[in-house]
Amino acid sequence: MRPFRAEAHGYVAELEPSERIVLAQLAGDVAQMLQEGVPGRASDAPGRSAPDDAWSPPGWTGPTPGGGGSDATPPPDPAVRRLLPDASDDVEVAHEFRRFTQDDLAARKVGRLVLLGRMLVDSEPAEAAPFVVGREEAQDVAGALTDVRLVLAERLDLRTDEQVEGLYDELDREGDDGPDEGEVGGAPRRFLVSVFLLTGLLQESLVDGMLADLRAGRGGPRPGPRG
Hints:
By secondary structure, this protein is mainly alpha-helical. The protein is built from six helices and three strands; from the N terminus they run ββαααβααα. It holds the Pfam family DUF2017.
């Protein structure tokens, strides 16, 4: 993998075929979590069909802007709650805000995760190849990468920057000696750690490129909140 860099036609990274597949699958998994993990979503109603597009996450029913279709119950999955956090420490304010915005926020996140997945599998190179993100798509792609990373962080029980920094040492230690005795997760944890670090490098380099363009007065959307 080579991180994103700004070029004339957009932001260009280089990904191995296996990296494309893993990232696309994760984007689909997170989109499905949002589809299924919001209590009372209107999109859970029967009768909706999957789109005819070349790629969609498993169980896809399409993003459904709700305007109050959910029942304002916080998602039971802590990973989904990271994606759809309370807007206030005040319980009543958080409840009302969630009731009126949760569906729309979930739909927006699902839409950009689907965009990322489709871009990743748009071509099927046999070897490492450029992954090009246009300037008009960059903010959505960065947001989707952030959401995937948030879910991985929850699954890895990461709460602090120090824990994130320690992941590099963890991988090095496992590479030299194998997993620590008694470590929970083993090979599955090593895989999640590797993908977490990969998405972090991609997301950070993409945002860095967008900010560099902004400072230089080049086109493209201004990086905004990643909610």
